[in-house]
Every structure is written in structure tokens, then in C-alpha cells.
Amino acid sequence: MLPLSLLNAAQNKPMLVELKNGETFNGHLVNCDNFMNITLREVYQTNTEGDRFWKLKECYIRGSTIKYLRVPDTLLDAVKEEQNRARDAGRGARGAFVSGNRGRGAPSRGGRGGRGGPMRGGRGRGRGV
Amino acid sequence: MSSLQGYVDRRVLLILQDGRVIVFPASKPNANPQGVMVGFDQKSNVVLSDSKERIYSIDAGVEEAPLGLYLVKGDMIVLIGELDDAVDQAVDLGTIHAEPIPPIRY
């Protein structure tokens, strides 16, 4: 599972962010991007020593300053489930595409082409890497 | 190309630039795939489930602080290593006294 898919799934969830300088931010994730830049709302900030606190309505944190994020344990299962669903859906959709679209651009050879015939594998998913 | 793929779903130990040691220990032998690295990306950011921090000190045994689901930025990581379950569990952490790893200073 990609770290960023976990982060994306954490939207509107509470999280703790520690910066490289040791400051921490507790809040709900509003948004994030691929640099791991994030915005939080209803934030409690602590200084490096952990003895001073600030309350912020909202804040933006540059991704490169982050040391780590701590997210709710339940998120892991949620993301795994979501990925399984997406994979199954993707499989279904691709299957439909292959059988339903044979006509388009393919040599007109008895319409649908028999299973495992020479057409099979002709128009696949690109060449892969 | 070197890859972290081989560490996925394994118990690993992480050392960070600030000297912290994070592990993903299955607290009981044969406990399910808990406490493992669940993912990583190009930048070596890693996701760890059920992680714990091992806090070393001279005048007390090793303390394990539960951290839970953790996303660590690749920038901060010094080392990732696979834990040998058998060896790790044979160690009584409470009896180990050690200097904590100092943070990197620039």
C-alpha cells in the first residue's frame, strides 16, 4: 500500500504530525497533495519541548518539513477494503471492455472472435513495462 | 535497483535521524500479520502498522511505547532492517540498559 493512498484516505480524520524540528500538530486533515503538503483544521500545536501549546483554526504544513504522521489504526483496514473493491471493479470493467469492444478497429473476423483464437491478446493493455 | 519490496509484510526495525528506534513487534508469537511494514513508495516513505518505539536508557530497561499506524517520511530514515523474530523474542528488553542513539547533527 502506498503511503500517499493512506494519507488520502485520512481526509477528515484526526492525525498527529511531527515536524523535523520536533514541533507537533494535532488536527483533522483537510487536504493533502503528492508532496505531502497538508492542511489541518482545529489544530493543537506544541513546541519542540512539548511544554507550550497553541490552538490554530487551520494550518498548512509543507510536506518536506514533516518527520512522520500518526493516523488512526482503523484507517489501514479501510484502505485495504477500498483497494480490494477498486481492484474487483477494475477487473470487471476491463473484462467488459475486452469482450464488448472487440469490433472497434479489430479485423472483422467473424464478429466476436472465438475464445483463445488468434485475436486473443491482440489488443491488450499496452506493452507493459 | 534497490527496493524495499522484500520488507513488505515483514517485521522491521527502523532507525530515524533523530535517534529514535521504531519496531513493529508482534507482541505474541504467531500473532497475525500485525506489526509489519505495510507499504512504501519511491521516496522510501514507509507505512508501519502497530508500531512501537523502543526507548533505550542507561538507568532503566528498554521501554516500548506503542505508536500505532505510522507514516514515516523517507527523509528521516537512516536504516531499515528485518527483525529476526526468534532472536528478538529471546531478548528480555527489560534487562537491557543502553545509551540512546544521539540525533544526527548538521
Summarize it.
Chain A has about 130 residues and is an alpha+beta fold. Chain A has helices at about 5-10, 75-100; strands at about 15-20, 25-30, 40-45, 55-60, 65-70.
Q: Which architecture of chain B per CATH?
A: Roll
Radius of gyration of chain B: 14 Å
The major pleated sheet of chain A works out as: 5 strands, antiparallel
Q: First CA to last CA of chain B: what distance?
A: 29 Å
Helix content of chain B: under 10%
Look at the structure and give the CATH class of chain B. Answer: Mainly Beta
CATH class of the domain at 10-71 in chain A: Mainly Beta
Largest interface: A-B, 22 and 20 residues
- On the 0 to 100 scale, the average pLDDT of chain B is 83
Number of helices of chain B: 1
Please state the structural category of chain A. alpha+beta
* Beta content of chain B: 35-45%
Number of strands of chain A: 5
Biased composition (Gly residues) (chain A): 108-121
GO molecular function (chain A): RNA binding
Function (chain A): Binds specifically to the 3'-terminal U-tract of U6 snRNA.
Subunit structure (chain A): LSm subunits form a heteromer with a doughnut shape.
General description of the model:
The complex is a heterodimer of chains A (129) and B (106). Helices cover 26% and strands 30% of the residues of chain A. Chain A is an alpha+beta fold and 129 residues long. Chain A has a domain of 62 residues: SH3 type barrels (Roll). Chain B is mainly beta and 106 residues long. Chain B is built from one helix and six strands, in the order ββββββα. In chain B, strands 1, 2, 3, 4, 5 and 6 form a six-stranded antiparallel sheet that branches. In chain B, a hairpin with a 4-residue loop joins strand 1 and strand 2. The longest helix of chain B is centred in the last third of the chain and has 6 residues. Chain B is globular and about 40 Å long. The chains are: A alpha+beta (129), B mainly beta (106). At the A-B interface, helix 1 and strand 5 of A face strand 3, strand 4 and strand 5 of B. Strand 5 of chain A pairs antiparallel with strand 5 of chain B, so a sheet runs across the interface.
